[in-house]
Amino acid sequence: MENGNQTSDADVGIWYSSLAYDQWVTLPVAGRRPPGRYKHAAAVVGQRLYISGGSRNGRHLADVQVLDFTSSTWSSLRLSAIPDAVQSESDRLVQGFPATSGHHMIVWEQKLLCLDGHSKYSSFVTVRFLDLETLECGVMDTVGDLPVARTGESVTLVGSKLIMFGGEDARRKLLNDIHILDLDTMTWSKVEATQNSPSPRYDHATAVHAERYLLVFGGCSHSTCFNDLYVLDLNTMEWSQPETRGDYVSPRAGHAGITVNGNWYIVGGGDNKSGSLDTLVLDMNKLVWSVVATVNLRDPLASEGISICLANIHEEQFLVAFGGYNGNYNNEVLVMRPKLKDSARPKIYMSPAAAAAAASVTAAYSYKSEKPPELPKPESVYPKQDGSPVLANMKDAKRLLELSLIEVREENSMLKGKIDEINSNHEELSKELTSVQGQLISERSRCFKLEAQIAELERLLESRPSIEAELQSLRKEKSTFEQILEHDPAVQRQGSRGVWQWLSGGEGSP
Asked: Among 35, 62, 415, 454, which lies 20 to 30 A Cα-Cα from 397?
């Protein structure tokens, strides 16, 4: 157990009644479980959890599995394809849902919509449907500016529109484009957003706030993982990167997220080295990160390609996580009862352009306010009770000022936290600088020693020509002596006698 938040088992049938808040437990199921997998798609409809596709042992799956919360049993869904719905040449041979992973499943009316992922059937994003009443499935015709097929993208439902962001295409090109599918007309449109857009990425998570803001968190490129947060204003189509506070958030990709009453829960993911052990929650009204649970390294929750859904079971809300890969292909179902918090008014995220405009308006108002204001007449301050809208306007102005005051206080609190963080970083950097200076002094001493050794080697190299000349002279003398020995018999006899005398110890002659 770690921080008291390690997952545990729950009792069949009564698990929902004794579950503590913000604690993950493994949901026991009866019967046969589906194969473990990751990068699948998941959705909850009523009292059932639907799982589609995914990857296992290098291959994509094509099944649809269903977990009934009332009986805690799994079953496989048998589908029948609609011939008229499979018209394109690329989808003509597809029966049911094709084998795919890295796709998304969205609940729309009485259907489950599956969008894209690893698929060989089309070069553009394909929208497939599963009718939960008839158990028929097929391909939905879409028109407009169709986005290129991809995997690892995010798909978010906002009203009657699906917003697709980023991903990786079939050529492994990373994307950061935005496409919107109008579900009423099944028309695709590409949107050009302004300001500082996120870098191209895939396997990130997105959420919608106040039906106006699209939040993008984390993901990865081909070389690194991210822990940044971006916000897209769907009214102005402007990107911004707001400051966040709270607990440290490590970079991750392959995580999953779900929103509950203005709180965005993030579970799973990893950085290609290890899985993320913490379950995060972002208060989207205050932009404050918190760690609500922590698990061990080999826990199924510390997995990439995991899914998370929100289920209403016995009139209570539960987070439901399934699958993922952390060295093993997991097929456990884990549930958590989130501790509900009072939802504050939705926060207005300002893009850099909007913030600059607001700053200029504030500056102009301050400049104008430097002049002494003219005192209004009493009758204008205290209007008669004749239904005049002046009092109502003043109340509205007061309310706006109070809201602005709250925003300023929150901003001051955020700035104070940032200053504290900067001061802490400054202290750490000062310590690091002192350490580096000590290392530099040591390296300088080492350099001086190396320079002395180099000077000695250079001196030896300079004397090399005289040594070579002396060696050459000795070789010539040796060669001359060998020639004399070869051509002068007297010297040979003298040499032989000298050898014999040496052998005989110098006593007499032969």
From this structure: 415
Which residue, 194, 187, 193, 133, is CA-closest to 160?
Answer: 187
Residue 107: other Cβ atoms inside 10 A: 15
CA torsion sign for 33, 39, 41, 44 is: positive
Domain span at residue 496 reads 463-504
Give strand pairing partners of 202.
220
Clarify whether residues 419 and 496 are in a common domain.
no
Are 424 and 484 part of one and the same domain? no
Model confidence at 25: pLDDT above 90: yes
pTM of the model: 0.68
Question: Over the stretch 400-412, which tens digit does the pLDDT of each residue have?
Answer: 677 777 777 767 7
What is the count of structural domains for the chain? 3
**Range list of β-strands (E), 116-252:** 127-131, 136-139, 143-144, 150-151, 154-158, 161-169, 174-182, 187-191, 194-195, 205-209, 213-217, 229-233, 238-240, 245-246
- Enter the DSSP assignment of 371: S
Is residue 373 situated within a structural domain?
no
The DSSP 8-state label assigned to residue 284 in this structure reads T
Q: According to the model, what pLDDT value does residue 472 have?
A: 87
In this structure, which amino acid lies at residue 165?
Answer: F
* Contact (CB, 8 A) for 242 and 229: yes
* 481-502: average pLDDT: 61
**Gap between the Cα atoms of 307 and 297, Å rounded:** 18
Residue 218 lies in a domain: yes
**Where is pLDDT greater, at 37 or 121?**
37
Please determine, for residue 509, whether its predicted confidence score (pLDDT) is greater than 70: no
**Gap between the Cα atoms of 54 and 398, Å rounded:** 54
Task: Answer whether 275's CB lies under 8 Å from 296's CB.
Answer: no
pLDDT at residue 49 greater than cutoff 90: yes
Number of alpha helices (DSSP H) and beta strands (DSSP E) in the chain: 5, 32
| Domain-located, residue 385 | no
